UniProtKB/TrEMBL annotation:
InterPro entries referenced in this protein's UniProt entry, alphabetically: GH, GH13_cat_dom, GlgX_Isoamylase_N_E_set, Glyco_hydro_13_N, Glyco_hydro_b, Glycogen_debranch_GlgX, Ig-like_fold, Ig_E-set
Gene3D superfamilies: Glycosidases, Golgi alpha-mannosidase II, Immunoglobulins
Protein name as catalogued: Glycogen operon protein GlgX homolog
SUPFAM superfamilies, per database record: (Trans)glycosidases, E set domains, Glycosyl hydrolase domain
Organism: Streptomyces brasiliensis
Start and end residues of each Glycosyl hydrolase family 13 catalytic domain: 195-606
Amino acid sequence: MAQERAAQGGLPAAVVNGPRRSAPPTVSARPGAPTPLGARFRVGPDGVAGTNFALWAAGAEAVQLCLFDAGGRETRVRLTELTHEIWHGFVPGAMPGQRYGFRVDGRWDPWIGARWNPAKLLLDPYARAVDGEFGLPPETYGHVRDWPEQHVADTVRDDRDSAPFVPKGVVVHDDDDWSDDHRPKTPWADSVIYELHVRGFTKLHPGIPEDLRGTYAGLAHPAAIAHLVDLGVTAVELLPVHQFAHEDHLLRRGLKNYWGYNSIGYFAPHAAYAASGTTGQQVGEFKRMVRALHAAGIEVILDVVYNHTAEAGELGPTLSLKGIDNRGYYRLQDDARRYADYTGCGNTLHVVQPQVLRLITDSLRYWVTEMGVDGFRFDLAAALARSMHDVDMLSPFLAVIAQDPVLRRVKLIAEPWDIGSGGYQVGAFPPLWTEWNDRYRDAVRDFWRGALPDVRDLGYRLSGSSDLYAWGGRRPYASVNFVTAHDGFTLRDLVSYEGKHNEANGEGNRDGTNDNRAWNCGAEGATDDEGVQSLRRRQLRNLLTTLLLSTGVPMLVAGDELGRTQRGNNNAYCQDNEISWLDWSLLEEPGWRALYDLTSRLISLRHRHPVLRRRAFFSGHAHSADGLRDLAWFTARGEEMTEGDWYAPAPTLGMYLSGRDIPGRDERGDPILDDSFLAVLHAGAHPTDFVLPGLPWAASYEVVVDTSHEDQEAVTGLLHPAGTTVSVPARSVLLLRVIG
């Protein structure tokens, strides 16, 4: 009968329950308060300790709070108070460590987007800790997952109890005032970002005790922090640490979501990364990690996924928001059974809705004020900036962030695209925001593999991308420059593979981008050819040097400074193993140790020289009588580039950065003066002669970096008179400091 009604478009009957269980005991709650949302432990006015529970569920007909003891036995509390669409109640005796969830009853009518099902235990969207993992058996689906006719499966309600199969929220008592914490508050222009995975960075580190590897405590360990400090980075950008779930298709293949871009709890640190426990201890462990990084002068930026959740589309599980108020939390199509999907993950949060916007901003403020983080990188940020359909830079989300007294002060990084129509928005986000600049990535990759038709685009990217960001008061540091990110080849794989090798993902190598802009230097993958190996290491030095000399904010990916490889996998999102984990033994190999030393040297150079981290765009004009400009470009002939030179194919580009004309003043109000530099980038397959510009540009030049050499100590300090011709080896960068 259920199948018959589904096919006719009517309301189907529920499936028959499994074995009947005795009804759980029930207790009553006091009225409590509608704010704050979530579970908050407190002592009532009569001196009785307990927890206030509050849940926004606008269209629900009834809400039950479900409490679980250590043995998994359930006690239900009917919430009878309803204020402004928020169901609430105070439960005396509910103490920190209490595990809980909600059951929400209402209409089952998928054709209008109504998917209430009280048989499903739901995670509190405001839960501050989560105990357990989502395994996604059939019972966790609001509909009959394995219904024979899959095209109508989402319309057939599943009345089996999901409580034994899903994690529970945990009541957390938080009275930490952060009075002993000192945020680094690194200016944007001085920042060097290091993207890392909490588990992958620490899992194989020999200096971290085994019981702490893969955890927040492991990242807080002195051995982990020493690497970050020695390298010189100013901020870590953590891949998602919000509680997330694994997708069903991965679990069926024996894999897990390693990256974590599948959030389900926006207030809870992912429990699997905790060494100390998962009944609230993960919160304190995360805070101690933040404090340890702050004490070392390192900021903490979170990669956050507010564009979609782990509940996927209409055939996905019912874990939280879908069962609380599906129509209120998600963007639905005109056919309300279906979800609007601007993310490629099955659903999109409806950020225009006030309660969704509140959920996101409450979460952001919580991580800043109570967890101590310093900023956020927003995954698929264009999806958050959509109004009803189109991306809108005056959207409610961006407007709220701009005026929020907490959030407007932290670092805000947009991944400025989504997969929907008009979703590519690089350069379009408003002031306060920085952006991942994929046009920088593509131009630098193409130059070093010899695929740029001319050097116009490269010139913009090296000098801060003024064509994208010089509007509305934005600055060069609006551009987060990167050559690699977690998504795609590692730096070593970028010069070792031309095609992806994702067979381990179990998707027939169909996943992952085909647009890698990679060059394998003459052999695909691992090779014993010493010439190919040497060329690859040189290309790595070229890419890292280019990145760290460019104007803007550089972002490194953890392990690129060590020569980490993923064996050609450019989409290792499901590889929680040695493919993704950092191999720290690489530091023991002379060639990779030299790469690390060069990276550290370049970052140190950047910190010492303000001309490499400008706070304003170059003008390109002369500011003194001798005609010396703040930025000048030279051909290999030692002549300033003409308009025609920009349009001609050229494997060689000279970039002159003047330290005399840096806008702004220092903290004492004095002019900022620095050395001047000439960088010669040569991507040609053969050596080239380069004429060093003479006066007024320089009297002579001192070698600072020469990427044609593995050992920089052997070449630094060499002097070349201005006007002379130097031979620049094939595929190399020569950085020269101006003398006189």
